[in-house]
Design brief:
The complex is a heterotrimer of chains A (332), B (305) and C (295). By secondary structure, chain A is an alpha/beta fold. Chain A contains 10 helices and 13 strands. Classes of the chains: A alpha/beta (332), B mainly alpha (305), C mainly alpha (295).
Chain lengths: 332, 305, 295
């Protein structure tokens, strides 16, 4: 078996807040293989974005990051010198952010910002950088790429800016791309195009892709594997097909029931909802974090829940003995 | 951009006319200029003679119109004290003041930019608080007193620098430091505030994600955005320095227009006073105009919008 | 309607906590209080007549400068006319505070009226006020003040009036934008909709909410006025001798600076301490009254 491009074990992120310490990410373990798309899915505040920022070393300065290990292509990011980390960032691992409107520097041209990582990481001279920028802009579907290079971010629409961000991430031919909800801020019609593009590029360049999203519909379409996060933990992970067909965690089941599926969801029949609220992550949490909202919760759920491993890398954090059935009243 | 510039130009023109009127009227409404010229104990006949001689008995609007018409042509009248025209007098002294203000601005930036940037990057640490403390204490000192202390230490005690006059560049060191020192705090605060805001923005995170070293992130990506209002303020500060030159130049006996203004005011040389007031006010109007245009031009969102 | 803005119990306690937690504010208020008391009770505190010249006792240094030459009758020594320095400094506080306060009042009234009018009515009023502000900013304060004092004569009243007429710009700028923000708030709209008259809205709803910002600007402008008075007097075109203005004292000390540098130190330090206290008080009030979470 080859080394995974990203291998994170027991990652934790703690943020000091006014009334204690926020355990925003707890015991997160995940791997991304070369040429594989891993989707990290969960609702807002579950720690999925922080997980991707932790990998890149871009957490806010007040946050504390710990892990058993966090390897990028076998090299541990935890005890890496800042210099080595800079060599990797934007070069072999790149990130695409959620807010295309504000993630580009308003004071510099698109061309300058695109060629910057290429030149900084010594991939070639200015001429080659410009050629690659034009090639990638065209590849991400931007017409008149040459003209775009001299434009400023404010002259481009949100969709175009996100394509620029994608092209920027690809400039140095990375082994891993982390995309943090790259389509959330965009129009629905453009969302699909951008996702398609990402999936396509991931295949074409054989990169690992870690895609953070709250939309299970996206996961179903592009992910090879999926990690479901809840309250800072990965509650279930495994191949997309397995997780969708036989979810072992009630939260995963709840999320799947929320997806509108054309054949199944009929007018007048309600989609699934998950009752209750996410528990506060300030201080510690004993036992299963989902038990307050879980229809199957029993007394042992208040004690620490071990991770159970099944076939094909399928793992879950629940004591239920079998796959969780759909709770919808009229399953198709 | 063009429309903006034209609108701004129009405003500058109107303000320019207003300040010219004030510069002219000011001395006339403050008291009886004829009495001030003749002296407190002059006889009424003497006062009348002076009133007649300087045309002060004509309607003020007529006097102003005549003065403005000549001023537009570069004629500001003749000095009552020097055997020279006001325009020539001002022109011969202006280079000293412009040099002083220019050096003052450079010194202000040398103090405020590094301090502002470091304070922003090390927010809420002792460096930040120290920089703020220097700014607060610095601004509380009377600038003439600061100048005198410098004269005492570096001029009289240590004998390093000349204490009065404007013959060599050495003469400009202490006045420029004094002038710069008092402009630095406001520039520093603006730099710090801008940097604090910019450093938390998404595009700084993007720059870090590209693997750029901290130096490039701060100087290329952050400062370029935070500096825009600072550049504009520099222009305004330069104008303030021209008007502040009256105190500094008097303290250091630097032969610029500030010193000339003080001399002229003390000697009731009112054509010179009017000329300098007009010039400094117009400088300020032009500099603020420049600041606004510069501000717009430096920001691509406005320049190309 | 007032209960929307009135602080509730815990909020008030929190505010008190913030005042006590702000050591700069406490120190500044104490220093300023002491200087004010000193100025008010100057005739009782001052050991000598500040105008009495004793020509035999000229330029006696204070004990901390030269213990041998010092004279126990003159705690801070004497000036070049043999006047007691401590007494002159104490009386000088009266001039600085008086000019600072009166100037602040004159400029505060002008600036607030203009600023509130511009912010509340907008439109043409705003255009005119903005034009006035721009014009005022274009005038070089020190030069204009010097010129006017030269013609009108250097008295306390003239200095106050000139500075008051020159220093209103910041009041107008801040009040204008603060009023604009308030104007769009719900309770002002509510007052308008129930038919409150414009003066009543301005005095009842707008003005009370402007007070924190007003106090901050006022403290800053008072400090500016004190510094400017000192500068004018230093240049010989402000308060006239023999009044013990601190700026004038620096000017007098300048003549003997070479041999007796300490004479220049004391009045300058006095200005510095007073201005610093006023500025810190303003900063402290700004921090305490700032909305939660902003610093």
């Amino acid at each position: 078996m080859t080394t995974p491009v990203l291998d994170v074990k027991q990652l934790a992120v703690q943020i000091p807040v006014a009334d204690g310490i926020l355990h925003a990410v707890r015991d997160v373990t995940l791997t991304v293989a070369r040429g594989e798309t891993l989707c990290v899915v969960g609702e807002s505040g579950c720690g999925k974005s922080l997980t991707s920022l932790a990998v890149m070393g871009l957490l806010p300065s007040s946050a504390r990051r710990t892990a058993a290990h966090m390897r990028f292509a076998g090299e541990d990011l935890l005890d890496m010198t800042p210099r080595r980390l800079r060599e990797l960032r934007g070069n072999r691992m790149a990130m695409i952010f959620q807010e295309p409107m504000t993630s580009l520097n308003p004071a510099w041209t698109i061309g300058d910002q695109l060629t910057e990582p290429f030149l900084r990481h010594g991939k070639g001279n200015r001429r080659e950088a410009t050629d690659r920028a034009v090639f990638l802009l065209e590849r991400v579907g931007i017409a008149a790429a040459g003209r775009r290079l001299v434009q400023y971010p404010h002259e481009l629409s949100g969709g175009l800016r996100q394509r620029v961000m994608i092209a920027m991430a690809l400039m140095c031919g990375p082994d891993l791309i982390l995309a943090d909800e790259p389509t959330t801020a965009l129009d629905v019609t453009i969302q699909a195009e951008i996702l398609h593009l990402l999936a396509e590029l991931q295949q074409e360049f054989g990169m690992g892709l870690l895609l953070v999203t709250h939309d299970l519909g996206i996961v179903a379409r592009v992910a090879h594997r999926v990690a479901v996060m809840y309250a800072g933990e990965v509650v279930e992970s495994g191949p997309t097909v397995t997780v969708f067909d036989e979810p072992r965690h009630p939260y995963t089941r709840g999320l799947i029931d929320c997806i509108p599926i054309p054949a199944r969801s009929r007018p007048g029949v309600p989609l699934g909802t998950i009752p209750g609220l996410v528990p506060s992550l300030v201080g510690g949490i004993e036992g299963c974090a989902f038990r307050e909202r879980c229809a199957f919760a029993t007394e042992p759920c208040a004690r620490p829940v071990p991770v159970v491993t099944g076939a094909e890398d399928h793992a879950w954090r629940c004591i239920l003995p079998a796959a969780v059935p759909s709770l919808l009243e009229n399953p198709a | 951009m063009l429309r903006f510039t034209l609108r701004r130009l129009l405003l500058a023109l109107v303000v320019g006319i207003a300040v010219s009127a004030i510069a002219f009227m000011l001395l006339r409404v403050s008291g009886d200029l004829a009495i001030a010229l003749a002296g407190e104990d002059a006889s009424p006949a003497e006062v009348e003679r002076i009133r007649e001689q300087y045309g002060l008995n004509r309607p003020i609007i007529v006097q102003y119109a005549e003065w403005l018409w000549r001023a537009v042509q570069g004629d500001l009248g003749r000095s009552l004290f020097y055997p020279e025209s006001v325009a020539n007098l001002i022109m011969s002294r202006l280079p000293v003041t412009l040099t002083l203000a220019g050096l003052g601005l450079v010194i202000a930036l040398l103090i405020s930019l590094p301090l502002g940037i470091i304070a922003a990057l090390r927010r809420n640490t002792w460096v930040d608080r120290g920089a703020l403390g220097i700014a607060v204490v610095g601004q509380a000192m009377p600038n003439f007193w600061f100048g005198l202390l410098m004269i005492f230490f570096f001029g009289l005690s240590l004998g390093w620098l000349p204490i009065s006059g404007s013959d060599t560049w050495m003469h400009f060191v202490m006045p420029a430091i004094t002038l710069g020192w008092f402009s630095a705090p406001v520039l520093m605060r603006l730099t710090r505030g801008g940097m604090v805001e910019v450093m938390t923005s998404d595009y700084i995170r993007t720059a870090r994600a590209k693997g750029l070293p901290g130096r490039v992130v701060v100087l290329k990506h952050a400062l370029r955005n935070a500096i825009i209002p600072v550049v504009a303020l520099c222009s305004v500060q330069f104008g303030n320095m021209l008007s502040g030159s009256v105190i500094i130049e008097t303290v250091f006996a630097l032969q610029g227009i500030g010193y000339l203004a003080w001399e002229a005011i003390s000697r009731r040389d009112f054509p010179v006073v009017q000329g300098i007031l007009l010039l400094v006010a117009l400088f300020y109007v032009i500099l603020t105009l420049l600041a606004d245009i510069l501000n717009a031009w430096l920001d691509p969102r406005i320049r190309r919008g | 309607m007032s209960d929307i803005t009135a602080p509730t119990g815990p909020k008030l306690r929190k505010k008190r906590g913030r005042i006590l937690g702000n050591s700069g504010l406490i120190v500044a208020a104490t220093v300023l209080g002491l200087i004010t008391l000193m100025a008010i009770f100057a005739p009782f505190i001052a050991p000598h007549d500040p105008y009495a010249q004793t020509l035999d006792d000229r330029l006696i240094p204070p004990a901390f400068i030269d213990a041998e030459m010092a004279d126990p009758r003159y705690l801070l020594g004497t000036d070049n006319l043999g006047r007691d320095y401590l007494s002159r400094l104490i009386y000088g506080a009266r001039i600085s505070l008086l000019i600072g306060l009166l100037t602040m009042l004159v400029s505060g009234v002008i600036g607030t009226v203009l600023g509130v009018a511009a912010g509340y009515f907008g439109g043409r009023v705003d255009t005119v006020v903005s034009f006035l502000i721009t014009t005022r900013l274009s005038l070089p304060v020190v030069m204009v003040a010097l010129a006017v004092v030269a013609v009108a004569g250097g008295s306390l009243q003239v200095v106050v009036l000139v500075l008051g007429l020159l220093l209103w710009d910041r009041f107008a700028v801040v009040m204008r934008s603060a009023t604009m923000q308030l104007r769009n708030l719900e309770y002002v709209a509510a007052a308008q909709s129930v038919g409150c008259s414009t003066p009543r809205i301005l005095v009842g709803e707008i003005l009370p909410n402007l007070i924190p910002a007003l106090v901050v600007v006022a403290s800053y402008e008072m400090a500016q006025a004190i510094l400017l008075e000192a500068a004018l007097s230093f240049l010989g075109l402000g308060v006239q001798p023999p009044l013990p203005s601190w700026g004038l004292m620096v000017a007098e000390a300048k003549e003997v600076m070479l041999f007796d540098p300490w004479v220049i130190l004391l009045p300058g330090l006095a200005i510095c301490v007073l201005v610093l206290a006023i500025n810190m008080l303003g900063d402290g009030i700004r921090d305490v009254t700032a909305p939660e979470g902003r610093s």
